[in-house]
Every structure is written in structure tokens, then in C-alpha cells.
């Protein structure tokens, strides 16, 4: 077999392959055997029809077609390996010449990974938010904990903001009660904004047994988006009572004996959260600066496939689970279809570019992934997917996605190398030491980047 490669552009090549006919022998034998099992010829036992009879009855062309279809993937793979290229996606194959007993010639056009030159990235500088926890932040956290331990007690008075009311609702459109427009015994906290627009104003000031009518645009159901006349009846009013902020509360809500210990723990938790957020912010901003440094040509077909995949996943999976159409989603987001298309394309370009650059960094820095790193990543992915580690691992193995996970971890390590070389300062001008948070933040950022990137292998 002879092959030659022609570069059509930085992301696409054409392979020209010449195959001597004798190299088709195994595929021809397999083709005759396959046809033999599928046909019946009078006078011959099934599977024992001679090749010359198959040629006469069904045509030599049918045999050649079967043989070529069987052999092409092997010859294509050999040509790819000989040319030392990294193909992306499936090739467009064109058989240019097929002479029985003489030769098989074909071309294969395929997108390839572009050559990526990684420049010196040690000069990257980024600024991130400073880690600052105020007394107000601590009190807010304690107050939120206090809210979780609030109790409710029935009261005989008009409902006010913050009260918990039990209500019955009935919605009409054009004077007709909707089939899904009745709900009884609904518990609602006034001011929470968790129900229809206008319900807060309607129930405020009502005692148990009182009712009111208001107009509101329905957020879901059979008449979604339509204005409905809603009647609300209050059947019970309860006041929320918060526990006293004292040592007894600390013992009730935590493992601490005193309120001061609880506050100190809240401060530490907030600091840890902000340090993690800071590390994640550093990852994102360093990556943005790295992307600016490197020119990466994007394969057009790969880009179009990625854009279509993103749109499909959004419309048929994410929005489908929420009961939204793409048109309703765009309306909520306040975007036109053109703006959505532009944004999706930009995200796809960024994802593909990120993967190409980080993969090149993996090669340049000779980064490897060990079993412990892969297991930790698998556990994190399992948790985010809502599956148990065993279930997720089984799905990964059955789906042949182990190489994809290895790639995600390796890209995370590559991004960590760049962050380590960058100068990161906070908004107070202080140099930020990310050693404690960098590994985990880098791992999760790379995971997000890898999921966001196109699946360019193969």
C-alpha cells in the first residue's frame, strides 16, 4: 500500500491511498463467505456456493463492494498512522479507481488537530477578589442558620409579611376554572416570592377565612403565559418565631457550646468558601489570559458539529427537564435567536480552543495521570451526576469513556502548571498563595472546561 498526505489548510488534510489488489484478498474471501451465508442457490448446500457461481448469479460488483467496504477502515487507519496525523471525526472517503484484479485507489479528507505552539506563559498576571469576611457576613450566616430553626405558631390576627399562611387557590382564564388551576392547603411564607405575582399583596391583611381576588400571569401549566383571575382564600395564619441568639441556640444548631464558638466557626467556613472561590477565579482568569496568547485554527466541521450538539443538548435535555421550549427559554433570557446562535458559537470556539491548548501542554510538560488521581476525579464526577461511584464507574467503562476522563484530569494538571507560573494578586495588592486550594479548584475547573470543550478525540 502507498499513501501520501496533502495539507489542505491548517486543520484539514487529504490522504491519497493506492492499494495493490492482492491486499484485498482477505476482504474478498470474507465477502464471499458473508454472501454465501445470505443466499440460497438450487443444487448447492447453504454456505457451499462456489465463488464463480456467486459472481454469475449476483455479480462480481456486489462482491467487490462488500470487500472494499470491509477493507477501507483498515487501509485508512494504516495511512493515518503512516502520515502521523491526529484525525478528528470521520473522514470523507472517495474511491477514485477500482480495477478488478489490479488496484484500489481512494482519497480520504479529514479534519486534523492543528499544530499548537505554546509560548512562554510565565508572564501571565491576574487580579482576583480579596478574601475578606466581615462581621456582617458572619451575622448573616448565623441568621440564616437561625431561620432554619424557626418555629411557627397559629395566631388569630391579620396576616403580615413573614407569616406562614395556609391558602386555597383557584385560577380562571376567560371565566373558566382551569383543569390544573385549583390547589388547596398550600403553605406559603408571605414575602418569599415563591408563588404567583400578586399573591403577597392579596393575602397581607387577611385573617383566617378571608379571601381576595387578583390578576396574575401564570408561570406554568396549561395556560402558561396567560393572565388569570386568581381567588385566594386564607385558611390559617401562623407567625414564625426565631430562637433567641444565645448559647442554647448554639447547642441546638451546632456541635458548639457557645454562640461565640458558633460565630468563629461560621467565620472560618466563610473564609474557606471565599478562598476556594478565589482559587477558582484565578483558574478562570489565568485560562482567559492563556487563550489570548495562543493562536489556534478551529476545524470548521468540528465547530459546526459542536454547535449543533450544544443546541441539541440544551433543547432536548436541559430545557426538556424544565418543561421549557427553546423559544420560551430565549424569551426568559431576553435574547434573540441570532444572539443565542452567536453566543453558542463563541462558547464552542472557546471550548475547542481550550482543549487543544491544554492537551498540547500535557504533551509539552509530559504530564501523566495516576490511578489515585483518576479515582478522585471519578468520585467527583459521580457526585455531580447524582450517581454512586460504582454506578458512574460502570457507565464510564461500558461507554468507553475512560480515556475521556483521563484527558480531563490531565488537562486539569496542565492548567495547574500555568496557574503556578502566573502572578496572582488580590484587589488589595497582596500576592495570593494558591497552594492549598489550587489542586481541587484546578481539577473542578478543568472538569468544567473539559465538559464545555468539544469531544475532539477520534
UniProtKB/TrEMBL annotation:
Record's protein name: Trigger factor
Chain spans, region Disordered: 429-458
Biased composition (Basic and acidic residues): 443-458
Domain of life: Bacteria
EC number: 5.2.1.8
Record remark on domains: Consists of 3 domains; the N-terminus binds the ribosome, the middle domain has PPIase activity, while the C-terminus has intrinsic chaperone activity on its own.
Localization: Cytoplasm
Organism: Streptomyces sanyensis
Entry keyword set: Cell cycle, Cell division, Chaperone, Cytoplasm, Isomerase, Rotamase
Function of the molecule: Involved in protein export. Acts as a chaperone by maintaining the newly synthesized protein in an open conformation. Functions as a peptidyl-prolyl cis-trans isomerase.
First-tier enzyme category under EC: isomerase
PANTHER family reported in the protein's UniProt record: TRIGGER FACTOR CHAPERONE AND PEPTIDYL-PROLYL CIS/TRANS ISOMERASE, TRIGGER FACTOR-LIKE PROTEIN TIG, CHLOROPLASTIC
PROSITE patterns (alphabetical): FKBP_PPIASE
Regions of compositional bias (Acidic residues) in chain numbering: 432-442
Catalytic activity: [protein]-peptidylproline (omega=180) = [protein]-peptidylproline (omega=0)
Chief location of this protein within or outside the cell: cytoplasm
Location of the PPIase FKBP-type domain: 162-215
Family: Belongs to the FKBP-type PPIase family. Tig subfamily.
Amino acid at each position: 500500500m502507498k499513501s501520501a498526505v496533502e495539507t489542505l489548510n491548517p486543520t484539514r488534510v487529504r490522504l491519497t491511498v493506492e492499494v495493490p489488489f492482492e491486499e484485498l484478498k482477505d476482504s474478498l474471501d470474507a465477502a464471499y463467505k458473508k454472501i454465501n451465508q445470505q443466499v440460497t442457490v438450487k443444487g448447492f448446500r447453504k454456505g457451499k456456493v462456489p465463488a464463480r457461481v456467486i459472481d454469475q448469479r449476483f455479480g462480481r460488483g456486489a462482491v467487490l463492494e462488500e470487500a472494499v467496504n470491509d477493507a477501507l477502515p483498515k487501509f485508512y487507519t494504516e495511512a493515518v498512522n503512516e502520515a502521523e496525523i491526529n484525525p478528528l471525526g470521520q473522514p470523507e472517503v472517495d474511491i477514485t479507481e477500482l480495477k478488478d484484479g489490479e488496484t484500489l485507489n481512494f482519497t480520504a479528507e479529514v479534519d486534523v488537530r492543528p499544530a499548537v505552539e505554546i509560548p512562554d506563559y510565565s508572564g501571565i498576571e491576574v487580579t482576583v477578589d480579596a478574601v475578606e469576611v466581615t462581621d456582617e457576613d458572619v451575622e448573616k450566616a448565623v441568621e440564616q442558620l437561625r431561620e432554619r430553626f424557626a418555629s411557627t405558631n397559629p395566631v388569630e390576627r391579620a396576616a403580615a409579611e413573614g407569616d406562614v399562611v395556609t391558602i386555597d387557590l383557584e385560577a380562571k382564564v376567560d371565566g373558566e376554572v382551569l383543569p390544573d388551576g385549583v390547589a388547596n392547603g398550600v403553605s406559603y411564607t408571605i414575602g418569599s416570592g415563591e408563588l404567583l405575582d400578586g399573591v403577597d399583596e392579596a393575602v397581607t391583611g387577611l385573617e383566617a377565612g378571608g379571601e381576595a381576588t387578583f390578576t396574575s400571569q401564570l408561570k406554568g401549566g396549561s395556560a402558561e403565559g396567560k393572565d388569570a383571575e386568581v381567588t385566594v382564600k386564607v385558611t390559617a395564619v401562623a407567625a414564625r418565631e426565631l430562637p433567641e441568639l444565645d448559647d442554647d441556640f448554639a447547642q441546638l444548631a451546632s456541635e458548639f457550646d457557645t454562640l461565640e464558638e458558633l460565630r468563629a466557626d461560621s467565620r472560618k467556613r466563610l473564609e474557606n468558601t471565599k478562598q476556594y472561590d478565589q482559587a477558582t477565579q484565578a483558574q478562570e482568569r489565568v485560562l482567559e489570559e492563556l487563550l489570548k496568547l495562543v493562536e489556534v485554527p478551529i476545524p470548521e466541521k468540528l465547530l459546526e458539529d459542536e454547535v449543533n450538539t450544544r443546541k441539541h443538548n440544551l433543547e432536548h435535555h436541559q430545557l426538556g427537564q424544565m418543561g421549557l421550549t427553546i423559544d420560551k427559554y430565549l424569551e426568559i433570557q431576553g435574547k434573540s435567536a441570532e444572539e443565542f446562535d452567536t453566543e453558542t458559537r463563541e462558547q464552542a470556539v472557546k471550548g475547542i480552543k481550550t482543549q487543544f491548548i491544554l492537551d498540547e501542554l500535557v504533551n509539552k510538560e509530559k504530564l501523566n495521570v495516576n490511578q489515585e488521581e483518576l479515582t478522585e476525579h471519578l468520585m467527583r464526577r459521580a457526585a455531580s451526576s447524582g450517581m454512586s461511584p460504582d454506578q458512574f464507574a460502570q457507565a464510564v467503562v461500558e461507554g468507553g469513556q475512560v480515556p475521556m476522563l483521563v484527558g480531563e484530569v490531565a488537562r486539569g494538571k496542565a492548567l495547574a502548571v500555568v496557574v503556578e507560573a502566573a502572578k496572582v494578586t488580590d484587589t488589595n495588592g497582596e500576592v495570593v498563595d494558591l497552594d492549598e486550594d489550587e489542586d481541587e479548584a484546578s481539577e473542578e475547573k478543568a472538569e468544567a472546561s473539559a465538559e464545555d470543550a468539544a469531544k475532539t478525540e477520534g
